[in-house]
From TrEMBL:
It comes from Tropilaelaps mercedesae. Ubiquitin-protein ligase that probably functions as an E3 ligase in conjunction with specific E1 and E2 ligases. May also function as an E4 ligase mediating the assembly of polyubiquitin chains on substrates ubiquitinated by another E3 ubiquitin ligase. May regulate myosin assembly in striated muscles together with STUB1 and VCP/p97 by targeting myosin chaperone UNC45B for proteasomal degradation. Residues 1151-1224 form the U-box domain. It is an enzyme of class 2 (transferase). The lineage of its organism: Eukaryota, Metazoa, Ecdysozoa, Arthropoda, Chelicerata. Pathway: Protein modification; protein ubiquitination. This is Ubiquitin conjugation factor E4 B.
Amino acid sequence: MGDQLTAEELRKRRLARLATPPVEAASAVSAESPTVAESGTLPDPSAPATGPPDSTIHTAPSTSNVHASKKDIDDLSTVVSAATARKSSTDATGMELDEPTNHGVGHAGSHHAASKKGGPAGLSVESCKRQKSLQSAELTHVAGVHGFDATTAPPPKRSTPDGDADAMEVDEPTFDTAKTAITAASGIQSRSRTFVPCSSIVCAAQTSSVTPMASSVASVGKAAAMAENEAVLNRIFLADMVEATQHHLAAIAKQVSGTADLVQMVIAEYLARYGGLKNGQISNAIPLRSVSSTSSMAASTSPSSLAVDALTEPSSPIVYLAACYQRSFTEEKEFPRRSSESPIKELLAESRTLCLAYSRLILSGAIRLGRPSESRDDQEAAASDSSDLHALHEEFFHLMLKERFPPNFVVDLILGCSEQALSRIFNPVIKMLHIGMAGASYARPEHREYLKLLRELCSVKSALSNVRPFCELFVRNEAFLPRDVLASPYAGLELLHRTLLGPFLSLSLFAQDDTEVVSAFFGQKHPSSADGSILLRRNSQAEVGVLQDMMQLSRQLSCEIVYAILVNPSSRAEMLAWLVAVVKANEKRSQLRLDDMAVATDGFMINLVFVMQQLSLKVRVDKVDPYYLFHPASQLGEHQYNISKDACVRMTEQELTEFRAELEADRSWQQKETKFITECMFLSVYVHHLSIVPCVQRYVRRSRYIRELQRAVHELESTESLWKIVPQLAAQNGASLTKWRSQLNKLNISKQSADVVLFDRVLVLRCLDFYDNLAQLLLHILGTPVSQTSNISSEIPPISKLFSALPAWFIEDMADFILFVIQYKPRVIGEQNTTALVHLLVLLVCAPYFVSNPYLTAKLIEVMFLVSPAIQKFTEKLYLQIRTNPIAEQHLAVSLMKFYTDIETTGASSEFYDKFTIRYHISIIFKSLWENQNHRGQLIEESINGNQFVRFINMLMNDTTFLLDESLQSLKRIHELQEAMKDQEAWNAQPREAQQSRAAQLATDERQCRSYLTLARESVDMLHNLSQHIKEPFTRPELADRLAAMLNFNLQQLCGPKCKNLKVKNGDKYGWDPRRLLNQLVDIYLHLDCEKFEQAIANDERSYRPELFDDAVSRISKAMLKSEAQIRQFEGLAARVQQVLRERHELDLSDAPDEFRDPLMDTIMEDPVLLPSGHVIDRATIVRHLLNSATDPFNRQPLQEDMLTPATELKAEIDAWKARKYQTAKSSGSVLYNEADSPASAQTPDNDGSTPGPSSRL
């Protein structure tokens, strides 16, 4: 290579020169080439330079010092010091300036520092004054045209910590990385960006006063200071250029009047050459100093072009300006002490101001880029201008997206813009953000870049006024909420795509929302499938955690975006309007049947609910206006709150109308202003109603359908050997099996994706926290605010009109979500404080009259059922909260007992089957409460003092009778089919269709038997527990006969001659335990062993036989179910019943008059009563009827027990007739006389008003 230096050697030399102190570098004279002072002439720019050997070697560091001769430095020293001095000076007109005068964006004031001989450009001092004035006026005009403020205040002084350069860590990128970045159209070191709002940025540069150039050589100290200024400028603005030779810098020093001129000329020349600045735009858009034809500046080569000629590789104008902006901060970091003092401090601030000003001019189109051909017409030129500006905006957008701009560059750029300029620069950015985010997916990582960029732009605010300019621009954009969106029948879905915020909340991991996430996270292609079908891929817990963390990050960014818009006062109203529009457009999501194309996706709504949870996290319910839904200014009440669509908690339509009228009469309340926290709270309630609840309900339905499909596939696979040999069935069933397996695979993929979203721990805990907050609001409305368990009162408050008028789904949504969590995520619910939620739950169950819909109360009872220890072991904390609640200890057991009877009729078509499920839940709760002494005492007390207990026992007996009967019938059918299948020869002789039909019937019977036995077991358990401690209600005439008949019938089924028909294979599979059932039935007999119950057993003519008790004794003795004492007691009961029957047989009452007989049962009446309809009937018969139906059995008119009138005269006649019969039997000795059966004893009624005595069933 001869005498040329290698790139590495050149790099080392430059680094060594950069390490030279500025004073030494300024006083040093290069020995490698003659100076301008020595030669006396400017060298030819085209001549070979004696500095760097090869300008194509890309080793220019970002802080390059350019050496000059001493004379050049002296001449430039006066110019630079005058241009950057911040001291008060006097301009050409004699005005004293305490602060620099601003003359527009991007221009520092082109003042000609004329020498005594007229200045370097050959202009007189007067010419310089006129030129300065013209330029100032022109710049002010241009700034106004392009939307920039020409009178912006100068920037505040930037505080920089002192310290030596050696002590500071220099974070300067190497030239290799810088060159790579420039080639990639970035040119800026990539680093994490934090937009910290700063003060308003000055958009005008400092105006320097006209100072005569010194005619003599400056002192060495002054030359050193000038060298420092010159080195700073070169490090900032010439870092992308190869080091200029000394004669280049000398030419600049001689022909430039000030620092600001030098900076502007370098930038302008850069734009003209490498930014594509169009002809004529320099003088029009940037009012530089006019150059006379006689001036040396009119030469073909300008001073700035001499420097720009040395560029190794041109970069984007925005990249270049941002790099200069960053290097000004690098200068402060490397030389903190020197940079904090004048004039370097002002010079750095001036440099940043000019970089930002030119960036705004370029991005707003004030400086048009491109080199259009002169042959093109105006239309083509305009199209070219638009295309060039669009390309520039795209570059600007991608640089922001990739975080290539230095910290605070975009922040200062935004805060320094006028409203018009901000719109021109950032509206294209908003559009590109919207387009980019519309195609984003969790399957690709770039979605985070879009969210972060929008978050950071919305976070930019002024430190003085807290105004967020970008937020204002964002909500004023026409696409933020197009007016015609809500009018569309598909408004819910269009909000996702046509509004600006929609795509940013549309990221979803639900399989039905984004097909890309299916193949990326939840599925894999079938290796042998030609149609590209996807198989389910099981994710590990760690993989699920990664996906949930990814969701949390994007949701948090979305929340910060919405929060930034809401906290900005000028954009809050538009943001609230957008949220209300989402609620209105998606109201159909609460329906069971909906069109997915008309509403927003599940992913969008779940993201939105996360945002609303964050916003309402710290809302205090005592600050919320509970009447907001009825307020005239409510944005939700007029649309959503409609009694025809949303039923009230308790009010009817007429009551609601009257309540509204009362509120409208209060003028002061109507004029009350609604607060943001109130709107935020109720918006959150509605968003939860339309998001999390429908998603939960869809998940439950999908899970149920998966189970049914799995059962169908299993049944078809288990019978494959039967239908495979039949060609027609083989083809049909084979196609069905393939179809069902494919559906099952898709459903499992959807379920797994929903598992990731809905079982997210953070989401579940936040929903529980929100619903607990909502429960506090409802309790506050009821007048019983709850904060801690110790503050809970045991008194049930009076019902509030406002509470009665609220939508019933306020309560139902809470119940649905708690049920979902308990069933699928039970461990989580115990970790959250749900004091208010539990108290509201207990209050509404203990006071069911608060709610008009019985199914809503049943759902609250189901919550208690699921948290009971018998069902769920992970919810012990929640169960203890319910059991120890003061209201529960006083009222829960009695309220459950009352609801057990009230649910008999609900008005629904499925009420018959619904009641069994609800009563099963109550039975389980009773079993848990029975173990607690307080709750057991409440039940016993109610059985003694309240008539409600009798109705409860009646319903319990009805259910037990029905369920045991259905269970035993199912067992018989199962036994029959199993026996038929044992005979393989006879079974195979049947047609295939018959075999399949009977096999299907067997599966149906097994499911029914399992359900019935489950319900029957709990009913029998309850009867067993109650009869052990409470006897009197069971022995009442209206109950005793029916209870004894039920016990006798089931004892016959278990111990009678046909008991073998109940023997089935794998009885445990159905919950069938005959020994346990027999043991409980015998216990109930023993619990109720008394004379009245003996009479009731004897009254049963359908099932009772003396041999029945003998068989029962034999079986319990053989199975050792009872002790000897209990067996002897049971035998004694059987003997006493037999004695009653013998006495009745000897006593002939068959000739009783018809008026003595009960019209319904045809038995001799013991206590006749007169009905309002005029009919006479036995009290026991009519009371038993009223327990089931409160109507007159003869005309179906309403009838209550207190409407019965005792027929005392008829009763006296019956008693007298029976006394004569007994007397006759006694005298003949045919029966053993019993004082309890005598007419005298019959005259004394029992405690319940009935008169016991023997009766004959004819």
